[in-house]
Every structure is written in C-alpha cells, then in structure tokens.
Amino acid sequence: MVLIQNAVLTNLSVLEWRGENLPVSKKKISPCPIDAMLTVIDGRWKGTILWRLLDGPMRTSELRRSIPEMTERMLIRHLQELVRDGILVRHEERVVPPCVRYSISEYGWTLTPVLEVICGWGRKHLERLGEVGKAIKDQ
Are 62 and 53 in contact (CB under 8 A)? Predict the structure, then answer.
C-alpha cells in the first residue's frame, strides 16, 4: 500500500522497487517531476529573484539592492543557474560602464502559477507558525 501511495506521488518508489538507479546529486536529472522542478528553483534566493523579476527586467545591482540579505556572489551564482536552465534571459548592453539586465524568459513565465501557489502556501504556513508560536507562549 505504501509503495502504491509513493508511486502515485513521485514514481520514485516504483523505480527503487525495480532496482533502477536514481540520481543522488541534484545536478543529475531525476525522473521525478517534483525533483525536476525543485532542481530549477532550489536555492535559498531563486524564488525571491524570480519574484522580483515578475515586475520587469532589472539590472544586477538593482536585484542586489532589492535583496540586501543575499551576497553578490550568491546572486551571480543563482542568476547564472537560472539563465543556464532557460528561466532567465541575460541582456548585455555594450556600453561603458557595462549594463546587464535580467528578465524572465518566455519559458520562465510558465513558472508564474507555481510561484504564486508556493507564495500562497508560504503565507498560510507562516500564519500557522505564528499561531503555533502564540499557543506555545500562552501555555
């Protein structure tokens, strides 16, 4: 019964049951659709970067200022990965000083409904955590 439930959710149990090798590294493609999606948006800041870019293209420095908790190194790394995965487009203007803007690609826009659902769930979860925290304090 558990095998069937897990197979319905991700098909991973069926693959494990058949003895097929599954990728251990997030860099390898998993046959699980949930893992495939998570490898693209996995990372502490990728969702935030995408959320910021929903309003339109932004320069690297604008993105950096809009997420002050993130280091520049991490921003560059996430931007490179999102461009590599086809989620973002990098626009480089040949001017002095150089100007680079990032925007969401046509393919990347297909993630918008997913981000909205994740954001809505996150809000509910934060509310729940607040209620749980309040209940614990009241005890």
Answer: no
- Name the DSSP class of 102: E
Bridge-partner residues for 91, per DSSP? Answer: 101
Residue closest to 102 by CA, chosen among 58, 70, 66: 58
Q: What is the pTM of this model?
A: 0.72
What domains are defined for the chain? 25-138 (1.10.10.10)
Contact 18, 31 (CB under 8 A): no
Q: Which amino acid is at 76?
A: I
Which tens digits make up the pLDDT trace of 60-98?
A: 999 999 999 999 999 999 999 999 999 999 999 888 888
